Amino acid sequence: xxxxxxxxxxxxxxxxxxxxxxxxxxxxxxxxxxxxxxxxxxxxxxxxxxxxxxxxxxxxxxxxxxxxxxxxxxxxxxxxxxxxxxxxxxxxxxxxxxxxxxxxxxxxxxxxxxxxxxxxxxxxxxxxxxxxxxxxxxxxxxxxxxxxxxxxxxxxxxxxxxxxxxxxxxxxxxxxxxxxxxxxxxxxxxxxxxxxxxxxxxxxxxxxxxxxxxxxxxxxxxxxxxxxxxxxxxxxxxxxxxxxxxxxxxxxxxxxxxxxxxxxxxxxxxxxxxxxxxxxxxxxxxxxxxxxxxxxxxxxxxxxxxxxxxxxxxxxxxxxxxxxxxxxxxxxxxxxxxxxxxxxxxxxxxxxxxxxxxxxxxxxxxxxxxxxxxxxxxxxxxxxxxxxxxxxxxxxxxxxxxxxxxxxxxxxxxxxxxxxxxxxxxxxxxxxxxxxxxxxxxxxxxxxxxxxxxxxxxxxxxxxxxxxxxxxxxxxxxxxxxxxxxxxxxxxxxxxxxxxxxxxxxxxxxxxxxxxxxxxxxxxxxxxxxxxxxxxxxxxxxxxxxxxxxxxxxxxxxxxxxxxxxxxxxxxxxxx
Length: 576
Description:
23 strands, 35% helix
């Protein structure tokens, strides 16, 4: 079964490259329940065209996958057999969808992962399954309108005349303490195989109004041409609310019917995703009542470094927290719980202005000082280093001082006049904290704090990047190439050295922005920029994925060799 999964992973990669879609009507959506948490669709005709324009073919991809393992002809033959003789239509859409379900108790949760493709010839697919060593003795059963095979406990392959689906049913349980035996015991999970079969049956017997085909927010996605689509729904979590240790009024009303719809495109020099979020009526009303302001870029202007690895800025109206507590009818309950401390929920959100800035720079690896080397391992282990600032500007000073005074009484912080600093426990963890009438700041060290507050330094950030953040409510930037370079080692024996080098030469950075709520929805843009600005990003990524796949295969081969020769592979084998 493990071998088949490996072939399936390779097949998934191929579908993403090879499949095409002429009809944009998502017929497969009729097999996907509305309650699916995440749906990813690859519409890869454009992807195939982009690869072909980049001079890549399927055969060349396979040659690259096996270029360091030319003797592994059996694996290569298996994948080619899957491609050519399994009756699978590789020129169709590929759907991934995930569902989360409650278990029979609070200690149990269920996650279901599905991959769906299309078939050209169901009989050829059945014949292919019967040739597999792991599956040839498994019984193929017929149900009303579909067939299925229980490949493993919780793993089901199912198909009808048009579609093929692989389902992985994970039933997770947390141990509970048995006071009689004085030990933790894992609850009974029931018959996982039967539960998995019932889950699969529910897909093929869905009424259309119970499926994503009846949800316009999902079906309208396909009106826009894109390389890929993603859809999320909060309804998958509704069933879990009843398993909470205590029930909150109106929580279900806030959780249900929140959706996001995204498109994904591989463009020249960048990967671009655009997302639109649709809150339900209750959350939308709160967003209208308490609109978020634009981010405050001045919070990062004077960060003391010319080597910024990344930063996050976001802004919100703190009063939305109070509005949410009131709407959920839990404000009174929360204040009753806080009554003994002398503070209220209002003290918490009024103490904040609503701006948050997090900046990280100068990431690196450093050998420990000689006096700190306690054993042989510590003599060779590198220690990560960095500079960091988290700035949370103060809103209402009276509310802030009230909270901090309470923290000082409990020993979390120390107070010197109107200055608050981290207590012994926080200092022991290497966290430097200082708060005053204007800011509450967490820093990597006192020197970084002093330099930041002096305001004499100038952070080095590309103006083209910061220009994108105007009027946005949140933004994120991460320099991938710099960070990989900062963390790379010169260890030539590293299993993934080639992959890391290729990644550094492939990626440039990530830029994410989110705009304000417009009365119905809010929009966000996620952009991964690549070093080669002229080449299509899918073509560029293929080289990276190939190196990763090659490195993974090489590592797997090493592990198999160590299972046979725990003391190491004899030199005579290496040389012959």
